[in-house]
Amino acid sequence: MSTIRDTLVDAQHRLSNAGIDSAATESAELLAHVLEVPRNRLFMQDTLAEDDRISFERLMAKRLNRIPLQHILGTAAFRRIELEVGPGVFIPRPESELVAEAAIRFVNEIANPIAVDLCTGSGAIAISLAVEVPGTRVVGIELSPDAFPWLEQNIKKFELVVPVEVHQVDATDYSADVFVELSGKCDVVTCNPPYIPVDMIPRDPEVRIHEPAMALYGGADGLDVIRGIAKTAGLLLKPGGLLVVEHADVQGPESGEMSVVSVLRAAQLDEELATYIPGVPGDLLFTEVSDRQDFNQRPRFTVATRV
After folding, report:
1. pLDDT, tens digit (0-9, with 9 covering 90-100), for 175-222
2. For residues 214 and 224, what is the distance between their CA atoms, to the nearest angstrom?
3. Is the model's pTM score more than 0.90?
4. Long-range contacts of 209-213 (CB under 8 A, 24+ apart)
5. In 3-state terms, what secondary structure has residue 273?
6. Are 270 and 235 in contact (CB under 8 A)?
7. In angstroms, what is the C-alpha Rg of the chain?
8. Using CA atoms, how far apart are residues 235 and 184, in angstroms rounded to an integer?
9. C-alpha neighbours within 13 Å on the C-beta side of residue 75
């Protein structure tokens, strides 16, 4: 019988040879899942029972076929919470934790805040806001019929002071009833939108094959959804309210007109939007537009203040 250490060393080599960067961590995660213990409770010298070895090999076969680790485990960690994920819903990434952090810091200073998370997917950002700032009214918006059941399932897992309210509508359709009802009332709007250009193929098969296309692709230049949610956020936010939008590292300020900073700085009140909110067509929607970096000092999200 093999020890846990021998099993992990072998699994790490196999995952690494398959091109998986975090092979050591992932092999330990898979074995801990089989043994139903936290990863830090794996005792390296313990022997591995044959039935557990077989179960582990089944999970390894899936991972070697580049099925995402989170799909195999059925969960994804995000800040203080663990979310249920699977086919049809985008797996939350650590980069999005910074979007949540910016929003949480902002509403922490506000009494009885209202937050809207557009393109909410699994509910990672929305639920984090509700968990970390108790009493916040949080509204999650998700269009995908495949992702929406995961969103509802995740919300039910948490005993929230104010449950997250969810609506299955297009985040770019600012005429939707939920947006009109919240017009000018919101303190913060967050969004991790689809932002990959349609002709750009993701390198990793975990993304290319297993992530839902609706959560990935944002039109010819990747910015179509961001242009749309800028108007929705313009309708939702109070003067002085904050918009926080995630983007690709190639859509930072150095991208010029193709940057999210440029899109938000150029966002204006048009004639149709002016039928819903006060102002003159041509008025700018946002001021104090700036970009922020991720953990690796790459441009990753943009913040903007409602005029």
Report:
1. 999 999 999 999 999 999 999 999 999 999 999 999 999 999 999 999
2. 13
3. yes
4. 209/66, 210/66, 210/67, 210/68, 210/71, 210/87, 211/68, 211/90, 211/91, 212/88, 212/89, 212/90, 212/144, 212/146, 212/147
5. helix
6. no
7. 21
8. 6
9. 9
